[in-house]
Amino acid sequence: MKRIFSVAMLFILLFSMIKVDAQKTIEGINYATGKPIKVTIKDGKISKIEGIKKLSNENNDVFISQGFIDNQVNGFAGVTFSFGGSDLTQEGVEKATSELWKKGVTTYLPTLTTNSKELLINNFAVLSESIDNEKLLGSIPGFHLEGPYINPEDGFRGAHPKRFVRLPDWNEFMEFYKASGENILQVSVAPEMEGCQDFIKKCTEKGIVVSLAHHNANTEQVNLAVANGAKTSTHLGNGCANMINRHRNPLWPQLANDDLTITIICDGFHLLPEEIQVFYKVKGVDKTIITSDVTSYAALEPGEYKTQTGETIELTKEGMLRYPAQNVLYGSASAITKGVGHVMKVTGCSLADAVQMASTNAAKLYGLSDRGTMETGKRADLILFTLDDFKVNIKKTFVKGELVFSAE
């Protein structure tokens, strides 16, 4: 019996060693250098990156890079994070995540927008369970709250329901924060609203990233917000009224303040090419983050839809999602993947710069030191893709070393 037991224990020990030592390699064209490389993965991390003469699979047009990081995902594939009556269950979150993996998004912040206190608390509570959901492989490090502390004026408010817009309330926000499991990484606010500057200070003290959004703040208010800790501008150029003063408007002070990083939606609808060009020239690669603002309406058939709060929106055949009542956009129907190719086409920036704006910069902003670059020791969140006429086509996605999507 002792011998049998010893053999069994030896087998288990050997099996464990094999499992621990298990590793895999991935080949592709380095997105930053344009040269073929082999990446070795062990225990969910990148253990080695080495140059090779040529790719063994002869797919000489397949790039490899770190996965994309999207800091503003309102929903995806029919699952909404912002409203009630949806598939906001763990199964729904898993569905949205797996569909985003197909787009090369390996990390994202589920984003909740302006709504009732009860709904926001409920949705944060549901989402908080996703942080430790092993099936998601750590793809959700935290959440983004956009609103409800924004400017209620038409245009600046965008598609946020006016009846739920309100002044900053720290006690209420702490209820949201507690419901989220203290996992709110970013909150987007209008700095000109009463009490907002103090609110910004308190968020900063807790390590929460504050972003300026859906506002009509002047230069003094923007600069004061930055002095109080605000770090970014949410989807700059959007969440803004169609008619603004050519001199005194919220765009110039945000562009002029060198301490503000901007996020921009590069889906081909939210910003004109010349807007993206100017924003990029002013802020540069290090101070620009590509985001999607994607919604649950992505991938649906063109037509009119009623939102959960009663507004009528339209998804055009070109893929634009608009809110006809105010003649403004209603979020995006395109994943961040489209933005990577579009920003290259519009600005002439390199693939390396586009990938940095779609991954590295966001990782730094939220202190996600385990991801955001393709380096040894980092999480093996990797994507293989082709670039055809500025269109990024995802071939394979690896999250924490696991193959979660293959187009083959």
Which characteristics define this entry?
408 residues; alpha/beta; Urease, subunit C, domain 1; TIM Barrel; 2 domains; 8-stranded parallel sheet; 7-stranded mixed sheet; 10 helices; 29% helix; globular
Summarize the structure in words.
This protein is α/β, with parallel strands linked by helices and 408 residues long. The protein has two domains: 23-65 and 374-406, Urease, subunit C, domain 1; 68-365, Metal-dependent hydrolases (TIM Barrel, Alpha-Beta Barrel). Helix content is 29%, strand content 25%. It has helices at 2-21, 90-101, 117-128, 170-179, 196-205, 219-227, 251-256, 273-283, 336-347, 351-365, and strands at residues 23-30, 36-42, 45-51, 63-66, 68-73, 75-76, 79-80, 105-113, 143-146, 184-189, 209-212, 232-233, 261-265, 288-291, 303-306, 312-315, 321-323, 328-329, 382-388, 391-399, 402-406. It is globular.
Spatial strand arrangement across the major sheet: 5-8-9-10-11-12-13-14
Note the quaternary state here: single chain
- Share of helix among residues? 25-40%
Helix count equals 10
- Give the N-terminus to C-terminus distance in angstroms: 50 Å
CATH architecture classification of the largest domain: Alpha-Beta Barrel
Overall shape: it is globular
Q: Give the CATH H-level superfamily of the largest domain.
A: Metal-dependent hydrolases
Summed up:
The protein has 408 residues and is α/β, with parallel strands linked by helices.
